[in-house]
Amino acid sequence: MKHSALHNWFDSQNVPVKNVFDQEGFSRQKRGYRNINDIEVNLSDPLFTKQWYLINTGQADGTPGLDLNVAEAWQLGYTGKGVTIAIMDDGIDYLHPDLASNYNADASYDFSSNDPFPFPRYTDDWFNSHGTRCAGEVSAAANNNICGVGVAYNSMVAGIRMLDQPFMTDIIEASSISHMPQVIDIYSASWGPTDDGKTVDGPRELTLQAMADGVNKGRGGKGSIYVWASGDGGSYDDCNCDGYASSMWTISINSAINDGRTALYDESCSSTLASTFSNGRKRNPEAGVATTDLYGNCTLRHSGTSAAAPEAAGVFALALEANPNLTWRDMQHLSVLTSKRNQLHDEVHQWRRNGVGLEFNHLFGYGVLDAGGMVKMAKEWKTVPERFHCVAGSIQEIHKIQSGNKLVLAITTEACQGKDNFVRYLEHVQAVVTVNASRRGDLNINMTSPMGTKSILLSRRPRDDDSKVGFDKWPFMTTHTWGEDPRGTWVLEVGFQGEEPQRGVLKEWTLMLHGTQSAPYIDQIVRDYQSKLAMSKKEELEEELDEAVERSLKSLMSKNN
């Protein structure tokens, strides 16, 4: 119709019309929406298309979009330049053509042989390929027609050979963890105590001191960043029994497979901060992690949480390039704030929200690392406030525990309010527990915060028959109450799970709070969360709370800008 004809038609309908304009159609796109098939990353490396953990288009029957979102970080120009990651392992094939150009020889050392050449010891079964595979995930070069690419393909990688020996010593661990802390930015460790479901072990005195020195003095006082694989003991183990993965000074990383499920070997615990990817469950040979292998070779079969930790180290390298001033605590805050639920799921452990609305999972922590989201927030990030430590209370009377009856204890605290070490916003919480049982593996320990967040501090470990040692001042740690106000009543529940009746004695529970006195972004998240609680019915909250937290993070970004 022409304009006059349109006018006449509207007049006949008694509809007043001022003007009529032709309308052209044009494009509008949802911001933040990413079509996996439209990602423009052109790399010549032959295994790149099989590195589904970098860009998941559904390879090996995976779930499209379930990846580390590295493409966004790369497109923003961040590839790890200027950052050095140390792989503490069984050595690195630094002659590998996909690693040689990014190898930092000056920052490397062999603590097993006491020389500066951490080349893996040869065995017929290629047993010492672990470190080389981890190195490729982080720093394999791009566009050289060899294997695949690293998460941070312009970063430097250092080799610290310390695993390949008959036994470990405290001094070797301590020397490795403290090697060149002003040159090395990130230490990646895919090892720990035996994952047999009955071991309770952690760093000894020298190693603990080395880690403390690292976070306090490394990187010019900004703190060394320690990335730790959470463990491969599966449902038979609990990573809170691993003193490396459950340390406040490490970032503990679990894994998911390419369809979002947990791998069968994944351990769960309340100290896990976030997740990346590995293989498991699927027989498809391309569902593993593609990376470099010994003697110039490539592999599609790297696996375990061993593969997960180096991926995280690569993402952190991208964030450090975006903002070299990030402290070790900044990196933990960024992990909490930018990790995503995405499509991660587990039949047993459901996603929950803590008292300030942050979504977490007992297996996956705060979700899968998002490289694009992390570098964008890191770029304008302001260093978090000073950290304080408060002994919130301690119960040291003997309490009996019997099957069929849970022991319930409570500590009410003001979190050192009125003192210099007042903790208002939580980061890490430790429950230091001394307990003995007729069967340690049947013990189950839960702790609930004043804001109602329940952390599973210890799950049943069916292979642990210990009846003598128990836990002696063992610091069970949770990250699930991140950002919460710790003031109020904390509740500890201790009981037994298992077929046979058991008995035990709890001798101590000391509550340790670690956090800050100010954290503006948490205030914003709390306001949005409480607003939604007031306006919505409980069953309608789930989708709306996602939007509340998203708005809070955007508000944080705009304030930093």
Describe what this molecule looks like in 3D.
There is one protein chain. The chain is of the alpha/beta class and 561 residues long. The protein folds into three domains: 51-379, Peptidase S8/S53 domain (Rossmann fold, 3-Layer(aba) Sandwich); 388-516, Sandwich (Jelly Rolls), CATH 2.60.120; 520-560, no CATH class. It has ten helices and 20 strands. Helix 3 (130-139) packs parallel to helix 6. The longest helix is centred in the last third of the chain and has 20 residues, at 541-560. 52% of the residues are buried. Serine endopeptidase which is involved in the processing of hormone and other protein precursors at sites comprised of pairs of basic amino acid residues. Responsible for the release of glucagon from proglucagon in pancreatic A cells. It is an enzyme of class 3 (hydrolase). InterPro entries: Galactose-bd-like_sf, Kexin/furin, P_dom, Peptidase_S8/S53_dom, Peptidase_S8/S53_dom_sf, Peptidase_S8_Asp-AS, Peptidase_S8_His-AS, Peptidase_S8_Ser-AS.
Q: What is the count of structural domains?
A: 3
- Spatial separation of the terminal alpha carbons: 50 Å
Q: For this structure, what is the CATH homologous superfamily of the largest domain?
A: Peptidase S8/S53 domain
| CATH class annotation of the largest domain | Alpha Beta
Structural class: alpha/beta
Report the count of strand segments.
Answer: 20
The total of helices stands at 10
CATH topology of the largest domain: Rossmann fold
How would you write the strand order of the largest sheet? 2-3-1-4-5-6-7
Mean pLDDT across the residues is 90
Q: Which second-level CATH architecture of the largest domain applies?
A: 3-Layer(aba) Sandwich
Biggest sheet statistics: 7 strands, parallel
Oligomer: single chain
Fraction in helix: 10-25%
H and E order = HHEEHEHEHEEEEEHHEEHEEEEEEEEEHH
Could you name the ranges where pLDDT drops below 50 across 5 or more consecutive residues? 26-36
The shape is globular
